[in-house]
From TrEMBL:
Protein name: non-specific serine/threonine protein kinase
Phylogenetic placement of the source organism: Bacteria, Bacillati, Actinomycetota, Actinomycetes, Micrococcales
Region (Disordered): 283-303, 394-425
EC numbers: 2.7.11.1
InterPro entries, alphabetized: Kinase-like_dom_sf (IPR011009), Prot_kinase_dom (IPR000719), Protein_kinase_ATP_BS (IPR017441), Ser/Thr_kinase_AS (IPR008271)
CDD domains: STKc_PknB_like
Residue spans crossing the bilayer: 366-387
Keywords recorded for this protein, A-Z: ATP-binding, Kinase, Membrane, Nucleotide-binding, Serine/threonine-protein kinase, Transferase, Transmembrane, Transmembrane helix
SUPFAM superfamilies in UniProt: Protein kinase-like (PK-like)
Organism domain of life: Bacteria
Stretches assigned to coiled coil: none
Membrane as UniProt keyword: yes
């Protein structure tokens, strides 16, 4: 088991007020600070004093530069500032994402299929944007996807990112979401390795577990690697997940990179196809100056990845105008620096009343006319596919689609404090903690921290849990989050250990 430790001392930063610890890492700690001007909450990532060798400093600097280069994207955490504290430790000032991240959610709740599709398209857009900038993430997983105050997924932790040039040795990757080529004796990888990890993350959101995890079975690092390299991808195991979505995951997580989608954008378009087939609003692609493309008009290098499947419609185009008003409602699509990939689309008036994920820092470029054209083109493609004898329609979704919150975000849920464990004579360890702001309906999401994967989490009503003796050999560490009655939860769980 990885040894856990106390958080390092927060540095004294002029213009910032320390609030609390958000999380601990192998090379850095993350703290919540309140910036004085402009006044806002920010997350500050501080390199550990014992990790100041040249290699770690270089990685830390690389992370700052890469994230700053990509910060314009709505699904990548924004870097505000980077500097060196008075005590010599480098630090990054980042956007504070107050809502529960994907790591806290996917084991604790059954995430609706429409929400997972929306998250998948937005994350795929973020990964594609990084790839177009020549950057591989190399560690995409639920724990590296935070949630902004506006409900957008936000990819973070580019600490082991690399350029898309010649393959380099991979450091610190997370086994449960890593493709076979990164687990080999001589790791190699390219954009398709990120495609695999992206799909593995989407799989986890649907299944409530990592892709090759056996519930109640042997999930050691050695066993996980063996399954990733040789076992077929298990089905998600949910009746509301259509076969078309399972097929997208199967292809994106193929053992050999040549059999996967060639790009993250191809994954995004395949997920959009699933949305269209389920008659859901199609999530826009957030790509720099990407011209809107009608669904069904596949890229020339991967036609099958975006071909529409036929679905049954009640009469020719029946109900298209009124079936789903949201399907043609304008949504803010963030655009960034121009690229040489394609000419910029004609700017349309920005929609009103639909905030983007950063509130006022980004504008919208695609208006209702373009959004409506995309949806109508998608439906037309469906009808054509149906007339040509397409595949059987997928089962109707059982989850109710809930659009992202557009009103004021609720206040952040604090982390428990005073988390400590005591070992009993029988070898079990009892942990207790305190809730700094108790409210009616509060519960606690906790799990034992392990070397591989994410902890298996469970909900309890009291401020104490006991780890049985057979699970508490050696040092035992847990994480705990507060879960409110409205299902909001601590963004960064508290962590504690007992010898």
């Amino acid at each position: 088991m990885t040894a856990r430790r106390e958080a390092s001392a927060p540095p004294d930063l002029p213009g910032y007020e320390y609030v609390r610890v958000l999380g601990l890492g192998g090379f850095a700690d993350v703290f919540l600070y309140r910036q004085h001007l402009p006044r806002r909450d920010v997350a500050v990532k501080v390199l550990l004093a014992g990790s100041l060798d040249d290699d770690v400093r270089e990685r830390f600097q690389t992370e700052a530069n890469l994230m700053a280069q990509l910060s314009h994207h709505p699904s990548i955490v924004t870097i505000h500032h980077a500097a060196i504290a008075a005590d010599g430790r480098p630090f990054l000032v980042m956007e504070y994402c107050s809502r529960a991240g994907l790591a806290e959610r996917y084991r604790a709740e059954r995430m609706p299929v429409p929400e997972v599709l929306r998250i998948g398209v937005r994350l795929a857009s973020a990964v594609e944007t990084a790839h177009r900038a020549g950057i591989l993430h190399r560690d995409i997983k639920p724990a590296n996807v935070l949630t902004t105050d506006f409900g957008w997924p936000a990819l973070t932790d580019f600490g082991i990112a690399a350029t898309t040039g010649p393959p380099a040795q991979t450091m610190g990757m997370s086994i449960p979401w890593s493709p076979p080529e990164l687990l080999a004796e001589h790791p190699t990888g390219d954009e398709r390795s990120d495609v695999y990890a992206l799909a593995a993350t989407i799989y986890s959101l649907l299944a409530g577990r990592t892709p090759f995890e056996l519930p109640g079975g042997n999930n050691s690092a050695q066993q996980l690697v063996a399954r990733i390299e040789r076992s077929p991808l298990p089905p998600v195991g949910r009746e509301d997940v259509p076969p078309q979505l399972q097929a997208v995951l199967d292809r994106a997580m193929a053992k050999h990179p040549s059999r996967r989608f060639a790009s993250a954008m191809a994954v995004a378009r395949a997920l959009q196809e699933v949305e269209a087939a389920l008659r859901l609003p199609v999530t826009p692609l957030d790509l720099p100056d990407e011209p809107p493309t009608a669904l069904g008009a596949a890229p020339s290098d991967d036609e099958d990845a975006t071909r529409l499947r036929g679905i049954a419609l009640p009469g020719p185009l029946q109900g298209l105008a009124g079936h789903d008003e949201d399907a043609t409602r304008a949504r803010a699509v963030v655009v960034g620096r121009p690229t040489l990939v394609a000419p910029a689309p004609v700017q349309q008036p920005a929609p009103t009343g639909v905030p983007d994920r950063a509130g006022t820092r980004r504008g919208a470029r695609v208006g209702a006319v373009i959004a409506g054209a995309v949806v109508l083109a998608a439906v037309a493609g469906v009808v054509v596919a149906s007339l040509r004898g397409g595949d059987a329609p997928p089962p109707a979704p059982t989850d109710t689609f809930a659009p992202p919150q557009t009103g004021p975000a609720a206040g952040p849920v604090p982390a428990p404090h005073s988390l400590a464990g005591t070992r009993a004579g029988d070898g079990s360890v009892t942990f207790t903690w305190q809730n700094p702001d108790p409210q009616d309906g509060d519960r606690y999401l906790w799990g034992v921290l392990a070397v591989t994967g994410e902890p298996t989490l469970a909900l309890v009503d009291e401020e104490r849990v006991t780890v049985p003796a057979d699970q508490a050999t050696g040092e035992v560490c847990i994480q705990v989050s507060i879960v409110r009655a409205d299902r909001s939860s601590t963004a960064r769980p508290a962590q504690g250990c007992a010898p």
